[in-house]
Amino acid sequence: MAVASNGQITLSWTACAWATNYNVKRSTSSGTETTITTSTTLTYADTNVVNGTKYYYVVSGLDATGEGGNSSEVSATPGGAAAASPILGGITFGGGGGGGGGGFGFTFTNIPGASFTVHVTTNLTLPLSNWTVLGQPVEVPTNSYSQYQFTDA
């Protein structure tokens, strides 16, 4: 599956029983994909894309003996239709005390297999590229949806 958003295409695929790694292949022409990365997970967020350009992807499994065949081809165009926005769940604040330390955490739901990055700033007028990256939330799948959790001490 390929999900496009602004400046990114997020890929997800089903595990292959024998594979230990996966080659992710991309092209701007159907049927001509070449390897752009090797992944140990079942998702990949391609941020080296240009909005308005259509990209084609296939994935192949790898093990110690070599590479298997390619998956079915998928395509997506970043910057097109916006991906669904995450639904913010709970926000928790904690800490304090004599040391002045504190922390916060939050959860959000509704985009299974997506990849998110948490940024922070004290100056909302700065572009996102100037915000500090705190990290990535962890996906916690449930029976009917996925929940993402992030805690920053």
Alpha-carbon Rg, integer: 18 Å
Helix content: under 10%
What is the domain total for the residues?
Answer: 2
CATH class of the largest domain: Mainly Beta
Strand content: over 45%
Could you say what the CATH architecture of the largest domain is? Sandwich
What is the oligomer described by this structure? single chain
Quickly count the helices.
0
Question: Poorly predicted ranges (pLDDT <50, ≥5 residues)?
Answer: none
The CATH homologous superfamily of the largest domain is called: Immunoglobulins
Secondary structure: number of strands = 14
- For the residues shown, what is the average pLDDT? 78
Shape annotation: globular
Distance from first to last alpha carbon: 34 Å
Order of helices and strands: EEEEEEEEEEEEEE
Largest sheet: 5 strands, antiparallel
Structural class: mainly beta
Q: From the 3D structure, determine the CATH topology of the largest domain.
A: Immunoglobulin-like
